[in-house]
Amino acid sequence: MSVSSDLPPPAPLKGRGTVWALEHRFSTTQADAFDDGWGTLDQAAGEEHLPPDTQIIEEQARSILAANDSPDIGFDLSINPYRGCEHGCIYCYARPTHSYLNLSPGLDFETRIVAKVNAADCLRDALNARDYRPRSLNIGSATDAYQPAERRLRITRGVIEVLAEARHPFSLITKSAGVERDLDLIAPMAAQRQAAVYVSITTLDGELARRLEPRAASPVRRLRTLRTLADAGVPVGVSVSPVIPFLNEPELERILEAARDAGATSAFSIVLRLPWEVSPLFQHWLQQHVPDRAARIMARLREMRGGRDNDARFGSRMTGEGVWAQLLRQRFHKACHRLGLNQAKAPLDAGPFRPPARQPGQASLF
């Protein structure tokens, strides 16, 4: 059960985006702090909190391909080998998905990771369906497919092995240098125009990155990953997302230039989104880490969201609206033009697709 909102969330801990077990919107019970006359509240507020361990919950998924119906997103299907993400990015728009598991979008999202251990088998079955036709597919849109658990579980690698066997094109987005491990699969597919990788770089400031994205690779390491991928012939892009006014927004052009110098040929950018429980988590983070700018940052975000913390409407949810949002878009497009990013390029090629071999012992129904 989550900590009551009447009790101050714990102080920040190194290596965690939050240790606040924020209640989620589907909670059926609520705990209230109660003063029993023995100084319990004062003790709870001042007690030392130990760093929470990460728990991996293995799951047998029933399906692995998720369809996208949003016109704001440039792919039709997505694969997320994990639920939750140990990187602990405080701003992550996927945090509220843990609510569907009756877990906290705060602490639980980054400490209770659901691993879809049969993801490769599910994908093999899906690609063998009689009515399946290859469509644009992205790995890691709501989790990082190369978070620490992947080193041992190798679920993402299994997924890419199936895609390579089927000659099915895909894109992938990550903050992790772990993607370099799978270059033996990705590079040959890239040579056939069937793979592209995007590396998310939110800031070039290592200290800010440690607080925003505590268990993700450092900015310097991500730039090195861009270079490694580019040198291997993989088309690479950069995601400068999310853009947070007065925090990482002043770095926009510098990040694009550093990524271009590291080998990126394309870029995209999304303005910070604060859906559901992300808003109180992020606002608490602001008060802990940049209290002098917290009110200013939230005021500018609300200005771009029609006076609200979040705008979920298609067409504006990724970019915001109003004068400041327009200026941001202009800065981004001008910088990309100056740096030679986002030039016309051939799309990934789905022509060679062929269904992968069925699982041993599985007979065709058709």
Q: Indicate the overall shape.
A: globular
Query: Could you say which structural class the secondary elements and strand pairing correspond to?
Result: alpha/beta
The largest sheet is: 7 strands, mixed
Q: From the 3D coordinates, which CATH architecture of the domain at 62-76 and 118-339 would you assign?
A: Alpha-Beta Horseshoe
Number of strands: 10
Order of helices and strands: HEEEEHEHEHHEHEHHEHEHHH
Low-pLDDT parts are 1-7, 43-48
Q: Order the strands across the largest sheet as they lie in space.
A: 2-3-6-7-8-9-10
Approximately how much helix is present in the residues? 25-40%
CATH class of the domain at 62-76 and 118-339: Alpha Beta
**Number of helical runs?**
12
Beta-strand residue percentage = 5-15%
What do we call the CATH topology of the domain at 62-76 and 118-339? pyruvate-formate lyase- activating enzyme
What do the pLDDT scores average to? 91
Overall radius of gyration: 21 Å
User: Could you give the distance between the termini?
Assistant: 48 Å
